UniProtKB/TrEMBL annotation:
It is found in: Cytoplasm. It comes from Marinomonas sargassi. Its cofactor is Mg(2+). It catalyses: 3-methyl-2-oxobutanoate + acetyl-CoA + H2O = (2S)-2-isopropylmalate + CoA + H(+). Homodimer. This is 2-isopropylmalate synthase. HAMAP family: LeuA_type2 (MF_00572). Keywords: Acyltransferase, Amino-acid biosynthesis, Branched-chain amino acid biosynthesis, Cytoplasm, Leucine biosynthesis, Magnesium, Metal-binding, Transferase. Belongs to the alpha-IPM synthase/homocitrate synthase family. LeuA type 2 subfamily.
Length: 548
């Protein structure tokens, strides 16, 4: 007998809506954003934020560009009360920013809330009560009329207090809490009643916030609820319809996106999604989703590392390495084929072309990440990633044939080492494998005579120095002949490539050589100011490997 029994749950009862229009809508404009980090996010923390942390977080929210910031629940928390007072008394709220505070629809709490807001330039008073069937029947033990009355009384109280402080620019906000668990017709009825009290106008709108306090269905059902609500509520044109989704089914962002398509104007959420249980809707993800579609999110998220650092410092929660757009690994490719595709696309990408890079929905540099992080090499990586790293970090443009040779060496190293092979280790591995032009023999003095046929005379320095000489068609061929004759080997150069490493007076060149020596293949690499010296040293490197 198991307690894992799905029959104890009942499916969500969707609202019936005909000819829904939201599936054909597109998000082409940013919503009004409201951050609830300092209220809903804070309420969900194991250790609520200190005043200092709230100050730091508030500064971040202002810099990111929020114009509406829910700063706390001052009637429920002395710390929140003090923080609101500090913001107002110290004049910390920019003129174009509304601070928002939450209160339950209870007269004594509303009174205390207004106390906290004395002297504010602009404020949103956010009043809520629960309207769902579950809460009505089991928590409040009230019928629909009783619940509606709480909302209406709260709305009246909010209005009365505001009238006593005309020096503040007030905006009223109402949330039928647990909206997703409320019969949508009843939510409309309660909101109509609240709007009748507040009497908004097109120039003085009220905010109606529809929360998925608990996410209970697929996002399309939520969008249906929003479209239905917008169609049926009485004073739609006098309202800003706001959404406040939570992430219980993992679809908080999707629900907000579809809800926006269904007619909402405003979105509440938190940076990186902290919030009750599985979190609030993540504003970073939703805004970056818009950004990646060419829509200005009207928030500045370019300094992602600062956002992460402040959020982590204030919430004491770590950002997951796979968190969309922000996690440490979200722009990183380990797989060889992905690395190869990214490398090719990045090489094609120019500033004048729309972004079109396989596996990278956005340009990592837009959020302060570097291309170095894009390609990280481990035992699953292929030659593309290895070549990319060596080129980016050290300017080594490995020819394809050498990439093919080097890749299994790196993979083997990664398997033994068990992790990511950083650029430095990769360079060392490269040098140890191919830049073997000094042991057992090193190139000493040499001269090259160019004629119909080229002649090389060279000294090799080792445990005992040797003189070699040979002829050939070009320096490489002459030097290979000289080496072959001296050591009794047959040396055929199969591949050769060179390129400049640096520009300017101390420009260096790198030569890559692949030689077949007595039937075995060896790869040699050498760097020198002079390309001929680099080339013959690369040949010597192959012979040294054969001797070793
Ligand atoms: O999740 C919720 O319903 C809330 C309300 C107070 C808006 O946080
Ligand atoms: Zn919430």
């Amino acid at each position: 007998m198991t307690s894992f029994d799905h029959t104890k749950y009942t499916p969500f009862q969707p609202v019936v809506i005909e000819n829904r229009t939201w599936p054909d809508q597109e998000i082409t404009k940013a919503p009004i954003w409201s951050s609830v980090d300092l209220r809903d996010g804070n309420q969900a923390l194991v250790e609520p934020m200190t005043v200092e942390q709230k100050k730091q977080f508030f500064a971040l929210l202002v810099d990111v560009g929020f114009k509406e910031i829910e700063v706390g629940f001052p009637a429920a928390s002395q710390l929140d009360f003090d923080f609101v007072r500090w913001l107002i008394e110290e004049n910390k709220v920019p003129d174009d920013v509304y601070i928002q505070v939450l209160t339950q629809a209870r007269p004594e709490l509303i009174a205390r809330t207004y106390e906290s807001l004395k002297g504010a330039k602009k404020a949103i008073v956010h009043v809520y009560n629960s309207t769902s069937k579950t809460q009505r029947e089991q928590v409040f033990r009230l019928g629909k009329d009783g619940i509606k009355e709480i909302a209406v009384k709260g709305a009246e109280c909010v209005k009365e207090h505001a009238a006593k402080h005309p020096e503040t620019e007030w905006v009223f906000q109402y949330s039928p809490e647990s909206f997703t668990g409320t019969e949508t017709d009843f939510a409309v009825e309660v909101v109509n009643a609240v709007a009748d009290v507040w009497q908004p106008t097109p120039d003085n709108k009220i905010i109606i916030n529809l929360p998925a306090t608990v996410e209970v269905a697929t996002p399309n059902r939520f969008a249906d609820q929003i479209e239905y609500f917008c169609r049926n509520v009485k004073q739609r044109d006098n309202m800003i319809i706001s959404l406040h989704t939570h992430n219980d089914r993992g679809c908080g962002v999707a629900a907000a996106e579809l809800g926006l398509m269904a007619g909402a104007d405003r979105i509440e959420g938190t940076l990186l999604g902290n919030g009750e249980r599985t979190g609030n809707m993540d504003v970073v993800t939703m805004a970056m989703n818009m950004y990646s579609q060419g829509v200005d999110p009207e928030l500045v998220l370019s300094d992602m590392d600062r956002i992460i650092s402040v959020v982590q410092a204030c919430t004491l929660l770590q950002v997951h390495p796979r968190h969309p757009y922000a996690g440490e690994l979200v722009f990183t490719a380990f797989s060889g084929s992905h690395q190869d595709a990214i490398k090719k696309c990045l090489a094609n990408q120019t500033a004048d072309k729309p972004w079109d890079v396989a596996y990278l929905p956005i340009d990592p540099t837009d959020v302060g990440r570097s291309y170095q992080e894009v390609i990280r090499v481990n035992s699953q990586s292929g030659k593309g990633g290895i070549a990319y790293t060596l080129e980016q970090e050290y300017g080594l443009a490995l020819p394809r044939w050498l990439q093919v040779e080097f890749s299994p060496i790196v993979q083997k190293f990664a398997e033994i080492d068990g992790g990511v092979v950083d650029a430095q280790s990769m360079k060392k591995l490269f040098e140890d494998s191919f830049m073997t032009g000094s042991t057992p023999y090193q190139l000493g003095k040499y001269d090259l005579t160019k004629d119909d046929i080229d002649t090389v005379n060279a000294e090799l320095i080792g445990s005992e120095n040797v003189q070699i000489s040979g002829n050939g068609n070009g320096a490489l061929s002459a030097f290979s002949t000289a080496l072959g004759e001296h050591f009794g080997m047959r040396i055929d150069i199969i591949q050769y490539q060179e390129h400049a490493l640096t520009v300017g007076s101390d420009a260096q060149a790198i030569a890559y050589v692949q030689a077949n020596i007595d039937g075995d293949r060896f790869n040699g690499v050498a760097i020198h100011n002079d390309i001929v010296s680099a080339s013959i040293q690369a040949v010597l490197a192959t012979v040294n490997q054969k001797i070793a």
